[in-house]
Write a structure and sequence with these properties.
Layout (H helix, E strand, L loop, with lengths): L13 E3 L3 E3 L16 H15 L9 E2 L2 E2 L1 H11 L19 H9 L1 E3 L7 E6 L2 E8 L3 E6 L4 E6 L2 H6 E6 L6
Antiparallel strand pairs: 1-2, 3-4, 5-10, 6-7, 6-10, 7-8, 8-9
Length: about 170
């Protein structure tokens, strides 16, 4: 049985099914292939991978283990990693209008030129950038409405050619 959706509060913990309560301090050793990476990046990836392992459902504007959308996965993983100052709008339509998602990332995140551990990939489907994913050394983790849940798979040529921009969150480096 999943917890009811609720807005995270300061100092909140994320309840991961089968793991009990877990706060950011519980993810100091994520078993990541990049042990020298900043701890917040490793925590974000660990939480996102766990959400994919649990197949957390896709839910438009979701921000809980009951369901998340693509940006919701990033927000929840960042929050669990201790990055708590993310602007989190939930007034967007299921199909982003124009360049709204891109503008929001441009306003807050740091633009980078090459894929790196913990980068956020802005991905174009059909005619515009409308999806985001968290990058690991070889994979991407995202909540994808086409499969109906959070998933992790190879960041291959198909996604690479559709990636329009890459970002890093402020505060990820520490």
């Amino acid at each position: 049985m999943r917890d009811k959706p609720r807005k995270p509060t300061r100092g909140a913990v994320i309840r991961l099914t089968g793991l009990g309560e877990a706060g950011p301090e519980d993810f100091t050793d994520c078993g990541d292939p990049e042990p020298g990476a900043p701890i917040k990046i490793r925590r974000m990836i660990h939480v996102a991978r766990e959400m994919a392992r649990l197949k957390i459902p896709f839910q438009h504007q979701g921000r809980s283990l009951a369901g998340v959308d693509c940006i919701g996965l990033i927000v929840c993983a960042a929050y669990a990693a201790g990055i708590r100052d993310l602007p989190d709008r939930r007034d967007y339509p299921r199909d982003p209008i124009g360049r709204e998602l891109e503008r929001a990332l441009d306003d807050y995140a740091i633009r980078i030129l090459h894929p790196e551990l913990g980068a956020i990939a802005l991905i174009r489907f059909i005619d515009r950038s409308r999806h985001v994913a968290l990058l690991t050394p070889h994979d991407m983790i995202h909540a994808w409405d086409q499969v109906g849940y959070c998933c992790c798979h190879h960041y291959g040529r198909w996604f690479e050619t559709r990636t329009t921009k890459l970002y890093r969150l402020p505060g990820q480096e520490s």
